[in-house]
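Subject: Sanity check before I submit

Could someone independently write out the structure tokens for this chain? I want to compare against mine line by line before I put it in a report. The sequence has 207 residues.
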Amino acid sequence: MGGDGLSNASGDGRSGLFHEFTSVINPLLREDLFAKPQPMELEIGCGDGGFLFGYAGDYPDRQFVGVERLLGRLRKLEKKARREGFENLRLLRFEARYLVQYLLPANAFEAIHIYFPDPWPKDKHAWHRLVNKEFPEITARILTTGGVVHLRTDNEPYFSQMQEVFSAHGGFVHEETPTELAARRTEFEKMFNAKGIQTLRVSWRLT
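---
Independent answer below. Compare away.
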């Protein structure tokens, strides 16, 4: 996570949209993120917000949490969101797997977005992949009943693995990604598509 587990501040003396971690052991409560309860969604690996910024702006009646390890990317997203007066966005600089498994509030998210995670294409590195056989159970912990995991990648072996692990879990059902959501492309996705690389996408709903 780039050093200590608590490095989540914006770095300029103001917290802004960043959540300030005071512990890497005690789980977060929903009200630690937002005072007013509304439908809440999570993007893991939000980068500089190519997807999340537009999505949060179009749905002010929903709340969004973006997770990213690289502080520079989060600062860029925060700057844009603060300029637009967003109040429905929180940014977390943290290692994603530990955060989802131990710290995020249970049964809190109606959707999880994971777009173009590192595919670790070499066989000897595949164990590094975020979406592995344990990941469906980890996501099930933080999803509401009926909550959905939306996945995208350009890597066919990783896409097959995503399909296999969620199918094997037994608690999720496969469904097509909604057309409106599929039309919202990330910056990486636009770049890949411009080169003729196909987006592989799927959604899994917790039953």
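---
OP: Matches mine. For the report I'm noting this point. The chain has one domain: 40-206.
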